[in-house]
Automatic annotation (TrEMBL):
<dbReference type="InterPro" id="IPR036188">
    <property type="entry name" value="FAD/NAD-bd_sf"/>
</dbReference>
<protein>
    <submittedName>
        <fullName>2-polyprenyl-6-methoxyphenol hydroxylase</fullName>
    </submittedName>
</protein>
<feature type="domain" description="FAD-binding">
    <location>
        <begin position="9"/>
        <end position="334"/>
    </location>
</feature>
<dbReference type="InterPro" id="IPR051704">
    <property type="entry name" value="FAD_aromatic-hydroxylase"/>
</dbReference>
<dbReference type="InterPro" id="IPR002938">
    <property type="entry name" value="FAD-bd"/>
</dbReference>
<dbReference type="Pfam" id="PF01494">
    <property type="entry name" value="FAD_binding_3"/>
</dbReference>
<dbReference type="GO" id="GO:0071949">
    <property type="term" value="F:FAD binding"/>
</dbReference>
């Protein structure tokens, strides 16, 4: 093995939360970083994501909090509505001390991504020449040896890197190329989820995330940072259909069939759907890669481990993973494979905790039929009573909140929270 005293060039496949967070920390550490994102531009969209415990600590250490605070969502809590829009249960943020379904620090996923990209632009300006952000391209083949990774791209010429990081999400191409087929690592969790932005309907209670159960689906309207818009959130309980992948017309048709007689704001949501420029739809899948480091290829974020958006922890785990991997790379100059192994052991407890489904699985979140829809309503009333509050608090807590970060703050003082 040729030993160099530094890790010279890292390739990150995927420019989502994990990819941007890692790029930010690497550039701050003076490491040349290329990000290759399949989409032609950063992908907007996504509903509120929570930052609690370790992920909040990471956001502080990365200097993201001023940007996050400027776009904080002021959610009052979660309310459950019937077909006529009447509220029959509430989980207020205060009643659950910011540890219920709605946390104290909430920001829309797309806004968090903007905060990261804003900081990345500042880091790039402070240390020009280190960052290469490429959109509309992707890796198609890789070959690694003890000294580096040769990567073939769809468009750009082939290149050699010191380390390849797969931050390319649930359907990671890096994972497929370096670890094996998706089926080995992915477990279907019984449904699909869609998110998109819509104009805020006039009679939606400001600040409340309102949700409705119907047979086979739940759908909700959640506050956005801009009060004139809201996020639609739709969860469908259906069998897996591979034909839905990448076919927006088929995805919309499925949503339409599932919500056509759902009452409340279903027509508003369905009317807004075709025009949504940030429409997101994917299967609910748990990803388990037991050992996310394989020589000079390593996985972070959803590519390595997640419990689907039902866990509510994907973004937190992605931020923590990016922070830890960058720290280990900076601390282990010239041996990115060792850095990747150290990261893999650091992230394991967070990844495990992040897969937990706080509100239960799809069977708990989406009623299968009319009877279960009625039962869900009754159960919700019971669960939201004062008596049951401690149990519900327990359900939503005990994920990553209590886990200490294995990297000391001093490790990152050098790269500064610019
Ligand atoms: C548009 C969007 C909206 C989302 N909304 C929510 C939400 O509302 N709630 C929630 O809990 N989770 C949501 N998620 C998932 C959430 O972002 C992740 O769970 C979490 O932030 C971890 O991020 P990640 O960077 O690992 O994965 P992702 O956020 O999925 O990012 C992966 C990135 O890799 C890119 N990519 C994929 N394949 C390739 C390839 N072959 N080559 C190059 N690039 C590739 C994708 O385009 C994407 O930009 C959303 C994801 C996206 C992309």
């Amino acid at each position: 093995m040729t030993t160099t005293d530094t890790t010279r060039h890292v390739l990150i496949s995927g420019g989502g939360i994990a990819g941007h967070a890692l790029a930010l920390q690497l550039v701050r550490s003076g490491i040349r970083t290329t990000v290759v994102e399949r989409s032609d531009a950063p992908r907007p969209g996504g509903q509120a994501v929570d930052l609690r415990g370790a992920s909040r600590e990471v956001a502080e250490r990365m200097g993201l909090m001023p940007g996050i605070r400027a776009r904080l969502l002021h959610e009052l809590g979660l309310s459950y509505v019937d077909g006529a829009g009447r509220v029959f249960g509430r989980m207020s943020m205060e009643d659950f001390d910011g540890k219920g379904a709605v946390a104290e620090i909430e920001i829309a996923r797309g806004d968090l991504d903007e905060v990261l990209r804003d900081r990345l632009a500042a880091a790039d300006e402070a240390a020009p020449g280190l960052l290469d952000l490429r959109y509309g391209d992707r890796i198609t083949a890789i070959a690694q040896d003890a000294d580096g990774v040769d990567v073939v791209f769809e468009h750009a010429p082939a290149e050699r890197f010191d380390l390849l990081v797969g931050a390319d999400g649930v359907h990671s191409a890096t994972r497929r190329l370096a670890f094996g087929p998706e089926e080995e690592y992915s477990t279907y969790l019984g449904g699909y989820m869609a998110f998109f932005t819509l104009p805020t309907p006039a009679d939606v209670e400001p600040g409340w995330f309102s949700m409705r159960f119907v047979p086979g689906a739940t759908f909700g309207i959640r506050p956005d940072f801009d009060p004139s818009t809201s996020k639609a959130i739709i969860t469908l309980r259906v069998d897996r259909d591979p034909a839905l992948r990448g076919d927006r017309a088929a995805q919309e048709a499925l949503i339409r069939r599932s919500l056509e007689s759902a009452g409340w704001h279903a027509p508003t949501v369905l009317d807004a759907m075709p025009a949504a420029s940030d429409f997101y739809f994917d299967e609910l899948a748990r990803i388990d890669v037991p050992e996310p480091a394989n020589g000079r290829v390593v996985l972070i974020g959803d590519a390595a481990a997640c419990g689907s958006p039902m866990s509510g922890m994907g973004t937190a785990t992605a931020l923590i993973g990016a922070y830890l991997l960058a720290a280990r790379i900076a601390e282990t100059p010239g041996d990115p494979a060792a850095a990747a192994r150290r990261y893999a052991s650091d992230i394991a407890p967070f990844a495990e905790a992040g897969k937990k489904l706080m509100g239960g699985g799809i069977e708990r979140m989406v009623p299968a039929n009319r009877f279960e829809a009625l039962m869900s309503r009754a159960m919700t009333k019971v669960m939201l009573s004062k008596l049951a509050r401690p149990i519900v608090k327990k359900m939503f807590a005990a994920n990553q909140d209590e886990l200490p970060l294995p990297v000391a703050e001093a490790t990152h003082a050098a790269d500064g929270a610019r």
